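Dear all,

This email documents one entry for the complex benchmark we are building for the journal club exercise. For each entry we list the sequence lines for every component of the assembly. Then comes the predicted three-dimensional structure of the complex as a token string, followed by one or two observations. Please use this as the template for your own entries, and keep the labels exactly as they appear.
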Amino acid sequence: MSWGDTIEAWPVSFAIRESPWLFPTMQIVHLLGLTVWLGALFVIDMRILNVGMRDVSIPDLARALRPWQRIGLAFLVTSGVVMFVGEAARMTVSPPFQLKMLLFVAAVLVTALLHRPMVRRDSPPGVAGRFGAILTLALWFMVGFAGRAIGFY
Amino acid sequence: MSLAEICRLIQDSPTGTAIRESIWVFPIVETLHVIGLSLSVGLIVLVDLRLIGARIGQLTPLQLMDRLSGWYLPGFALMFVTGALLFWSAAFSLYESPVFCWKLVFLAIAGLNAVLFETAVRPALRSPRTPTTVPPLARLVGWCSLVSWTTVIALGRLTAYRLG
């Protein structure tokens, strides 16, 4: 028995699958979280790339958007975990899901290690900073693309 | 000709059929429609939050809008174009979907709310006599935008259940 099957055998997984409204609700919460998380990230990264919001400093902008980013990410992770538990067996063998998780881990690492230190400094970002901004944004958008592909595969 | 027949013709047109039956076009268009949310609604949400009292640096709501409109206007254009292509491929199915009908209602509310912003709120915010706090009507428009767009997203996700 694979670990996906093990999770699906949990009573909570069964309850998630059986509920007629839980899964659709979680998909909506996931979509709302994506909207807020990616939107705020986009604004910060465009600021780092110096193509918008030039009259707000990067740390000020990041500080103002941080609560909303946290809410967006909390929406995404919570609903994502619930949906995964409900469909663990199908997810663990789904190539788009595996790709999404790979991209997700990469996106989290790049955001935590490259992005976060950068938005705390007030100095103008150099080439590395700009590269970090593009990479962060590209990775998170790719997470979104792979996520949408799960439903089609 | 009834609206139902027109929707049937649109769905059965060669382009509608081609989008619907394509392995790649439909998923890619739908993905762009979903990802485009972050560039349209995701940025408008920031303006709404500013209108209802959140702080984004020292920016006023109008300053924030000026700085974001270069992104959210193309974002909304992307949503509209991809949405039209998705509708093209499924016009009759969507005509029969009550959820999609409600989505259009809330899209209209969001649109009228934007018109209200442009005609009543923007002039008030621009007036030098307006105090630094956001006037009540502007707050109301901010809340209305947040609620109507959230509902549009929820109903949009539920619409896809009907088609799948």
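Observations: The helical segments of chain A are 3-8, 11-18, 22-48, 58-86, 88-92, 95-120, 127-150. The mean pLDDT of chain A is 91.
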